[in-house]
Amino acid sequence: MLVLSRQRDETALLFNSPDPAAQAYRDVWTNPTPAGFAFKDAPGHRWIKVTSLRVYGIPKGQPRPRAFARQMGNKFVARVYDAGTAEAWKGEIATAAGKEFDVLLDCPLRVCITFLFPRPKCLMRRKDPEGRIPHTAKPDVDNLSKAVLDCLVRIGFLRDDSLVCQSYSEKYFVCKDGEKPGAHVEVFRLEGANA
Fold this sequence. Notes:
By secondary structure, the protein is of the alpha+beta class. The protein has helices at residues 2-16, 20-30, 87-98, 141-154, and strands at 47-56, 65-72, 75-82, 109-117, 133-134, 164-173, 182-190.
């Protein structure tokens, strides 16, 4: 208990300190991005919004590659394939992105994605919250993000998804008021970097 109390006191001192290092630490937690997450930027870095995209549909995660072995004569041949379970979702992303993106980005990027899933009937009771509820079931948020980034590479908006140096993803059940499921994608580029 003493350790926790001491840590709390040190954190309070850090937040109230005039020290420049403490100010930088405070900035991390008090300067949120549009997605609601605080990024720590290097001094002099500014991010410029390239686009904001709204995709409607039920989000799907990037499937894992599947493998199988087949005997051909006296040899076994292994094959790897991509299960096409997310192709319809990627098609929705490509359709929405086709209206927005007209340039190939080849610079450091920040991507913020909010995924919205349909609310199940068990969360539509009167006692349940009106607003968004965190989604804690599958698919994983990293697989959801990978599907979006792979689609953006495939349609020619990004040269490669390795250009994303900062990302933030979150997933929720939609509000009770009739909000549509889908995803909200925001892409930022580093100021001064050539697109």
